[in-house]
Write the structure tokens for this entry.
Amino acid sequence: MVDNMVDIVTKVTCKYCGSEGVVKFGTYKGVQRYFCKACNRKFKADDSLFHMKVSADYISMALSMYYSGSSISDIRNHLKQEYGYYPSKHVVFEWVDNYTSLASKQFQDVHPKVGDTWSEYF
């Protein structure tokens, strides 16, 4: 007797070009990677960054809080309460250090265009 089993197949589309021509491309630290045949890029189906185990939302929240004046301990406590994730102080500091350096390099050649007229708003 054969049981009728239904396989639930989730269609993965490329997060860069939207193509459905995607194949599995091995795993990295237990996370499935995919390869897009249309744009030749590798990606993960979740929103975490490559070489990172946590979601980009956690990192962006930590950076936002840090630059708003929150301490590393406050950031850790917030992540624990909101997401159930309690990173070490070192991890949070590494996020701040790494992504601040990346942002500085990305925008080093950007210069604002300002005029010569100042106005007062009261």
User: Anything to note?
Assistant: The radius of gyration is 21 Å. Confidence is low (pLDDT under 50) at residues 5-9. DSSP finds three helices and three strands in the chain. The chain has two domains: 12-46, 56-106.
